[in-house]
Design goal:
26% of the residues lie in helices and 24% in strands. By secondary structure, the protein is an alpha+beta fold. Strands 2-3-4-5-1-6 form a six-stranded antiparallel beta sheet, sandwiched between helices.
Length: 162
């Protein structure tokens, strides 16, 4: 009788996703403008983010950085009387960075965010300590696929050359 081997795969994506909580009391479009200016990004607003575990929607900005092969998401944490992540209710916005960004670059990113004149505070958060973080990351990927990859029927990101 053949032995059955079980393969255990660890979630390597956990190591590549960084979350920065941002305290800022200006509208999302103005915040994205300041982040674009200070971090040299091109965040662009797409359709609102509605995770499957909530009925509300939250504004969603996205940018894919080709050089670093990294995804940047700016998501409002506050909806109509509710929070996307209630355990982080002190933060107005959530800034996700997904990709192989070196730790020193993340420290520099947080420093730049803190130096942005409209941002009161910016702190890194441990994403694995967030309840339902796996569902949140899955919902982010599905939303990205719906908003970016599928609509244009082109398998490229918006800021790449075709």
């Amino acid at each position: 009788m053949a032995k059955i081997k079980k393969l255990h795969i660890s979630n390597l994506e956990d190591e590549k996703i960084h979350l920065i909580g941002v305290v800022c009391h200006i509208p999302d479009y103005r915040l994205s403008h300041f982040i674009n200016s200070y971090l040299n990004l091109r965040l662009k607003k797409f359709g609102d983010f509605s995770p499957s575990f909530q009925s509300l929607s939250y504004s969603w900005y996205y940018y894919f950085h080709e050089e670093f092969r990294s995804h940047f998401y700016l998501i409002a944490n506050r909806g109509e009387g509710s929070y996307l992540l209630p355990q982080l209710k002190n933060f107005d916005y959530l800034f996700f960075v997904k990709g192989a960004i070196p730790e020193e670059n993340m420290v520099h990113t947080v420093t730049l965010l803190r130096n942005t004149p409209t941002i009161s505070a910016a702190y890194t958060q441990e994403i694995t300590k967030i309840k339902r973080y796996d569902e949140l990351l899955e919902a982010l990927e599905i939303h990205e696929m719906k908003e970016i990859l599928i609509p244009g029927k082109v398998k490229k990101y918006p800021n790449t050359k075709i």
